[in-house]
Specification:
Strand content: under 5%
Number of strands: 0
Order of helices and strands: HHHHHHH
Number of helices: 7
Oligomer: single chain
Distance between the termini: 26 Å
Structural class: mainly alpha
Radius of gyration: 18 Å
Helix content: over 70%
Largest sheet: none
């Protein structure tokens, strides 16, 4: 009974947080634009953004409470809030804010040490090296094909921090999950016409989706599969 009550309370909080995240993201995007002297966002998040954000945060919260130990569930819920915030900012002004990266790094280091001890950081170093290699090769390939790197440094830094957080073997879940999400997005984009050869798209959502998959998949495979 206590578990049900805690889950209901956390899900209710996530609904509230998720509903207001797009507004917070818009305010933050305006702040970043003012600081850099850029024009502000051309879009203002409406009810559709708020609804999607609410469903996303509530869904991840319920799934986390169902599958994960309490401490890992709380961490995953925090990451889903950050993911919703980062995705909104990325769609508004196409940046992955350094402030968000610092928050994830601090939380990720605490999580890594808590779950794997100091020895777990050795796995984090290897995971980060793997991510650097893969993203580096991707940038080289894209540059040869299109003349641009195709992957921003914000994307690379975010992926590196996630690698530090999930370590081994979590980095493989992260990379596989991210690749699957990107693949699904590309197939849908080609089928429905919103993605063409010269298209670019914000990467924050795909990277953060891979992050959440890395946190949830080991427990999904044990509990459900």
């Amino acid at each position: 009974m206590n578990g049900i009550i805690v889950t209901a309370v956390l899900t209710g909080i996530s609904c509230l947080v998720g509903f207001f995240i797009p507004e917070l993201s818009y305010s933050f995007a305006c702040y970043k634009c003012r600081r850099k002297g850029y024009p502000g966002p051309i879009r203002i998040p409406g009810l559709q953004w708020k609804t999607v954000s609410l469903i996303f945060t509530a869904g991840i919260t319920g799934l986390s409470r169902l599958l994960l130990p309490f401490d890992q569930a709380i961490f995953t819920i925090l990451i889903c809030y950050i993911a919703a915030f980062g995705i909104c900012v990325d769609r508004l002004i196409r940046i992955i804010a350094n402030e968000m990266l610092w928050v994830i790094l601090a939380a990720g280091l605490i999580y890594r040490i808590h779950s794997g001890g100091l020895i777990g950081l050795m796995g984090s170093a290897g995971a980060m090296a793997l991510v650097i290699a893969i993203f580096g090769l991707t940038m080289i390939f894209t540059y040869v094909r299109k003349g641009t790197a195709g992957v921003g440094m914000g994307d690379v830094k975010l992926a590196m921090i996630i690698a530090i957080t999930v370590g081994f073997p979590g980095v493989f879940y992260f990379l596989t999950g991210m690749a699957c999400v990107i693949g699904f997005y590309c197939v849908a984009g080609i089928k429905y016409g919103f993605l063409v050869r010269e298209s670019t798209f914000p990467m924050c959502g795909h990277i953060m989706a891979g992050f959440l998959i890395a946190l949830l998949w080991p427990y999904i495979s044990i509990t459900i599969l």
